[in-house]
Amino acid sequence: MKNFKWIIKENIPCRYELSWLGEKVSIILRVHKDFVKTTRVIPDDAPIAKNFMEKFKFSKFTGDLKKSFGFDDAFVFRGENGDFFEFFVPVPEVKKDTGKKCSNCDGTGIDAIMKEFDENRKCGFCDGTGKDHFFDWRPAQAVSASFNVFFSLARYPDSETSSPLPQLMVIDVVTDHDLHGGSLGGEFSIPFYQWLKSFDEGTKLPDVIEAMQKAQKKMFGKVNKYESFGFRAYMLRKGGIALDVPGNACGIYNPPDYNDDPSRKTGCKFECHNVDTPMQQLALLVGLSVLHDNARKEIKP
Hints:
The protein is of the alpha+beta class. The chain has two domains: 16-91 and 136-298, no CATH class; 95-134, no CATH class. The protein is 28% helix and 24% strand. The chain has eight helices and 14 strands. It has helices at 33-38, 47-56, 112-115, 138-155, 190-196, 206-220, 225-228, 278-298, and strands spanning 16-21, 26-32, 61-62, 70-71, 76-81, 84-90, 95-101, 131-135, 169-173, 184-188, 232-235, 241-245, 250-254, 268-273. It has a six-stranded antiparallel beta sheet. A four-stranded antiparallel beta sheet has the order 1-2-6-5. A hairpin with a 5-residue loop joins strand 11 and strand 12. Helix 2 (47-56) packs antiparallel against helix 4 (138-155), helix 4 crosses helix 8 and helix 6 runs antiparallel to helix 8.
């Protein structure tokens, strides 16, 4: 590690950025060529790779950023775009159809017990679809674990890039089976935090909410009325922001800047609360991707 700079205290050239591709329900990860050039290839037998392979039973790992990267090709290599290599990170389907009819309602979509009382209530097992399904967590875990490895690499690079663009955020994630197993956090840069301060308290961010809901729908097939109220993205006081997804008070936030000195320009940390699954983590990463897109349009090099 050489010439390490802390993004909260000083600007650093862009190493990577996240973007949202709504029509494909995918995150785009862009990695600067200088970072790829100076970053080592992670071998299959590296402890971090072996640990995730054994814990989640993934089928393969690729640690070369010049190819499709991560576990089970979670980051699909798209090629070069200017000074960056691009990776396509599709939001995976988690709830999958088995191709069989629901055994609880025999494919009718109507609750069998309540039907005996002449009440047509939809089946709680198939949500009224009449179709059998199962939950495949592994693709979402593969995305989380791949981000885990990549963000670890990008946290302490050997050298900075030549990009004229500033790094806007640095992210860390947890990937585990346990409580808080989808936690994430990191830092917002000086220009990004100043951009957040341009919003009034209480400002809602509907494009962030829409993207997170779209990711949820891709993973689970739908967003019901109850879940829709769990998606929130809004500004707090003086640069504070909160992004919430369905769960037990599940989301990310950063503290407002209560310092009254306008000449004091710093970045800030952001943290999470009760992010227990890789699916919640992924929805929040989608929200951060939309924020990154909006900020990049307005923050000049």
